[in-house]
Write a sequence for this structure.
C-alpha cells in the first residue's frame, strides 16, 4: 500500500460518507475516519488467533440513539494554549462513548463541574460491556471532547480536567 | 411477599462449597436491580465472588435500562461481583464467561444445547427460531489505582412461561420450563452456573482467554448463516464466520470481504426480514 492508495481510500471515505474504513495489508492496518477532517491512523496489525480471522474492518457505532446533550461549546483554549497542568482523561478501550447512564438520564458531568477521584465521567461501551470511567483525580471539567454516542479509540482523549 | 417461591440459599451454598464464587450470597425477595445492588456492594468493599440474587426485580434491566420483565420467584436473576488487578484481563471476558457458564450448566443438567448469541445472550434453537434463554449485562468500573471491579448480571428464564401475545416477535424468549415441559429446581441450576463461572474466573485471573474463545467459537449460534448486524446508523450483512481472539464478530460480506465487528445487534433469517 502506498500513499496514493491511502489517498484513494480517503477520497472513498469522503465520497461515500462512511464514518470509518479500515484496511489491512501485509501487516499494516490503515484506518480512515470521516467525516472531515479525515484522520488517518496506522496501527500494527495483530496476528490472527483463529484460522479464519480475516483482516478486520472495524464497525463501531452507537448502540443507542444520542439523547444526552452535546458537549458544551464553552470557549476552550486552542491545543497549544491548553495549560500543561490540565489532564486528559483517555478511553481505555475502543468503544462507544456515553455521557449519561441511560438515554433519558442527565449527563454524568457538565463542563464546569467539580469532580473527585470517584466521580463517574462517562460510560464507554464495548461489546455490550458498560465501562464506567471515573475521574480518578480531583478537579474541574474544562472540556468534553467527544459527542454522546460516538465511537472512541483506545487512548483517545475524552475529557480535559484542571486539577485542584 | 408471601407466595413468592424462595431459593434455598443454604442448599445452594452447600452445593457450591468450597468455591470462591457464592461464598457470600445476598438473597433479596425484591430489589430494584441485582446489578445496582451489587454495584453499591462492590464500591462498599464486598469481596470478589459475592453473589446477589433476587426473586423479583422492580427495575430489572438490560443494556441502557431496557426493562427486563420477570415473574417473581420463577427465574434466576443474579449478579456476581468481581474484583481484580487493573493490569489483568479485559472485563469483556466476564460477559462471555457468564454466558458460557449458563450454557454449560443448562447443557449438563438438561441435555439441551444452548448456543451463544454474540455478544451477551444464551439462546435455544427451537424449530426454525432462535429464542433467548438468558442475557448477561456486565458493568465495569475502576476501584482505585490498582484494582478494577465489575458486576456481572444474569437473567436466566427458568420456570416462567409466556403467552404468545407476551412475546416480542423480533426477540422471542424461551424458558427451560417451556422447552422441557416441566418445572425446574433452581438451586442446582444456579449452583452449576456459578461453579462454571468460578472456573472461568480462575482461568481469567491466570491470563488464559484462549479456552473461552475456543468454547465460544464452538457454541456460537448462526455460524454459516446469513446474518444482519444492525446499528442505529448503519448495518452489515453477510455470512457469520465466527469470532476473533478479542471476541469480535467476524462476518463475510457478499463480495467475500471479511468484516470484524465490535458493536451492534445480530439478527438472523425472519428476524432479519422483520428487523429490516
Amino acid at each position: 500500500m502506498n500513499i496514493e492508495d491511502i489517498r484513494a481510500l480517503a477520497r472513498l471515505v469522503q465520497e461515500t460518507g462512511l464514518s470509518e474504513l479500515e484496511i489491512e495489508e501485509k501487516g499494516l492496518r490503515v484506518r480512515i475516519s470521516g467525516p472531515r477532517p479525515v484522520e488517518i491512523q496506522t496501527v500494527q496489525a495483530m496476528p490472527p488467533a483463529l484460522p479464519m480471522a480475516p483482516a478486520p474492518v472495524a464497525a463501531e457505532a452507537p448502540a443507542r440513539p444520542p439523547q444526552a446533550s452535546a458537549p458544551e461549546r464553552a470557549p476552550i483554549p486552542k491545543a497549544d494554549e491548553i495549560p500543561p497542568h490540565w489532564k486528559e482523561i483517555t478511553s481505555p478501550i475502543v468503544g462507544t462513548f456515553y455521557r449519561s447512564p441511560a438515554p433519558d438520564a442527565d449527563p454524568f458531568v457538565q463542563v464546569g463541574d467539580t469532580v473527585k477521584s470517584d466521580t463517574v465521567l462517562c460510560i464507554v461501551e464495548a461489546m455490550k460491556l458498560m465501562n464506567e470511567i471515573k475521574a480518578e483525580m480531583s478537579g474541574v471539567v474544562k472540556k468534553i471532547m467527544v459527542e454522546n454516542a460516538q465511537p472512541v479509540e483506545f487512548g483517545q482523549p475524552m475529557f480535559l480536567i484542571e486539577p485542584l | 411477599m408471601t407466595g413468592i417461591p424462595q431459593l434455598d440459599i443454604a442448599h445452594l451454598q452447600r452445593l457450591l462449597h468450597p468455591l470462591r464464587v457464592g461464598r457470600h450470597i445476598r438473597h433479596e425477595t425484591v430489589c430494584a436491580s441485582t446489578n445496582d445492588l451489587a454495584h453499591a456492594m462492590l464500591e462498599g468493599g464486598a469481596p470478589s465472588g459475592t453473589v446477589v440474587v433476587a426473586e423479583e426485580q422492580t427495575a430489572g434491566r438490560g443494556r441502557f435500562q431496557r426493562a427486563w420483565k420477570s415473574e417473581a420467584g420463577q427465574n434466576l436473576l443474579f449478579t456476581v461481583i468481581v474484583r481484580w488487578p487493573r493490569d489483568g484481563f479485559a472485563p469483556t471476558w466476564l460477559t462471555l464467561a457468564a454466558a458460557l457458564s449458563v450454557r454449560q450448566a443448562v447443557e449438563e443438567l438438561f441435555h439441551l444445547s444452548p448456543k451463544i448469541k454474540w455478544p451477551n445472550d444464551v439462546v435455544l434453537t427451537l424449530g426454525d427460531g432462535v429464542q433467548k434463554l438468558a442475557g448477561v449485562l456486565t458493568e465495569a468500573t475502576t476501584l482505585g489505582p490498582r484494582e478494577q471491579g465489575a458486576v456481572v448480571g444474569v437473567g436466566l428464564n427458568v420456570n416462567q412461561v409466556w403467552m404468545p401475545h407476551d412475546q416480542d416477535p423480533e426477540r422471542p424468549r424461551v424458558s427451560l420450563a417451556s422447552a422441557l415441559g416441566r418445572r425446574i429446581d433452581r438451586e442446582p441450576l444456579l449452583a452449576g452456573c456459578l461453579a462454571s463461572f468460578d472456573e472461568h474466573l480462575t482461568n481469567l485471573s491466570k491470563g488464559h482467554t484462549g479456552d473461552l474463545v475456543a468454547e465460544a467459537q464452538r457454541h456460537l449460534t448462526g455460524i454459516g448463516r446469513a446474518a444482519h448486524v444492525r446499528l442505529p446508523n448503519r448495518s452489515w450483512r453477510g455470512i457469520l464466520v465466527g469470532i476473533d481472539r478479542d471476541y469480535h464478530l467476524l462476518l463475510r460480506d457478499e463480495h467475500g470481504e471479511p468484516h470484524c465487528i465490535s458493536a451492534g445487534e445480530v439478527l438472523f433469517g425472519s428476524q432479519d426480514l422483520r428487523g429490516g
About this structure: Residues 186-205 of chain B form the longest helix (20 residues). Residues 226-271 of chain B form a domain with the SH3 type barrels. fold (CATH 2.30.30.100).
